[in-house]
Give the backbone structure.
Amino acid sequence: MIKFKTKKKEGSVHIFLLTLFVIFFIYIMISMIVYRNVLVSTAFKFKTKSDFSNLAVYKYISKQELGKSGQIAFDDTDLNNCFNTFKQYLEKNLNLDDNLSPVQSNSLISKPFTINRIVIYSLRNGNLSVYTYTDSSKTFVLTKVENNYSNDVYTPSNRQVINTSVYTQVGFTIALIRGYSYQNVLTSFTDAVNK
């Protein structure tokens, strides 16, 4: 039987453990950076598709008013159609079912989306009408009328209302690592005339 003699240097176990710790730390940091980038790109995708859903609402502008005066405004009789259109396009754009849950089972979204608020700012002949839909009321309510409007109304996200506009808040929950989740609210504001 052959015996090999090896010299053990003092501290070699400590260096080995420190190296393992550094490798594990680097792995965790890289994983966090990659996961963060996935979350940021997902949020950007949701924002863009929510903007597209906002734009779809404009198909219910008053065509009579547009033809008569060239102004873009909403009729209060079409507001429920505005909600249904927004929801329908949100479902299509984000690949959701009728309950606003993701169709794909491997989605980052852990709970159904919620339409928290839709605010329609309708400007007609210098007068502003603000219609608000909330998740609790489930219907549009005329919340403000301002005659001789002077551009002093702001959205909940502090955007100035200059023209007929649509503002929405959509809530969603992202599944994180190890069963944790993160609730987020996506706001979208589209102005019929300006970007």
